Amino acid sequence: MTDNSLPTRSNRLGTETKRKKRGVALFIRDLLVIFVVALLISFLIKTFLVRSFYIPSGSMETTLLVNDRIIVNQLEPKLIPIERGDVVVFRDPGGWLLPQEALEQNPVIATVDWVMAAVGLSAPDSNDHLIKRVIGLPGDHVTCCNPLGQMSVNDVPLSEPFVSLPAGETNVSQDDFDVVVPDGSLWVMGDNRYNSKDSRYNTETPGKGFVPIDNVVGRALVISWPTARWSWLDDYSEVFQGIPAETR
User: Fold this and answer.
1) What is the pLDDT averaged over residues 166-185?
2) Which end of the chain, N or C, is surrounded by fewer C-beta atoms within 10 Å?
């Protein structure tokens, strides 16, 4: 007689197959959960803490080079006040940038780029933003140039080691200027002073060359790529020490 209580070979194989399929399904499910959670965490970090940008122009040379990638701290200025010397990324206040043509991308590449941008690893909107160094805070009186070619903030002349000038030039600005920064705004300049369309050269725009603090996305912290250029971005706080509060 056959003992029907014992599993046959085919039953055992069927059970093992089901267990393997269930194991694979659970593994795939767990991978999807991990991916979604990682994506959500990355999205939250990118939205509230840090994100990546690339440098599209040479206006900040030699501090930043074209195609450098930087990490930006978005807590500044939301929670941390902006200081003179900070390198900041900001949205166009209006009229600083020429209109950009929309790029046509392969749908697959566009999808990948969208996902990378969502987690802060890509910056397709870099061309819609600008990056400069903060020179003047609200109320500051910023002038250039004194007989030594220096810029002054609230009557204190600055010695700026980060500035890049053409050979033979000593003035830190090609053109003289004398401005008082209005409330809620900044006066910003590129380190590559003779090749930067910064606050000096946007005085005919609606904002008259000043950048609303509300337009600031964050402070650039570090060069993240290429690895050979990995470094923290200095705010040169010693350059701006001793400057009195706003003159107004």
Assistant:
1) 96
2) N
Distance of CA 144 to the CA centre of its chain: 28
Structure tokens at 169: 């030039």
Calculate the CA 108 to chain-centre distance. 25
Q: Which amino acid is at 106?
A: N
C-alpha distances in Å from residue 48, one per residue of 64, 79, 213, 237: 24, 11, 17, 26
Sign of CA pseudo-dihedral 10, 14, 20, 23: negative
**Catalytic residue list:** 59, 132
Instruction: Tell me if 117 sits within 8 A of 124, measured CB to CB.
Output: yes
Burial class of residue 31, CB neighbours in 10 A (0-12, 13-18, 19+) = exposed
Location of structure tokens 């000043």: 210
Give the model's confidence band at 28: pLDDT under 50 very low, under 70 low, under 90 confident, else very high.
confident
Measured CA to CA, the distance from residue 190 to residue 87 in angstroms comes to 9
Rounded Cα gap, residues 172 and 174, in angstroms: 7
Closest CA to 213 of 85, 56, 83: 83
pLDDT(108) > 60: no
Cβ–Cβ < 8 Å for 188, 88: yes
Separation of alpha carbons 91 and 97, rounded Å: 10
54: β partners: 69
In the prediction, which pLDDT does 1 show? 47
- Measure the CA–CA gap between 177 and 132, rounded to whole angstroms: 18
Tokens of residue 184, six digits:
């809620």
Q: What is the pTM for the complete model shown?
A: 0.75
Q: What is the Cα–Cα distance from 203 to 175, expressed in whole angstroms? A: 13
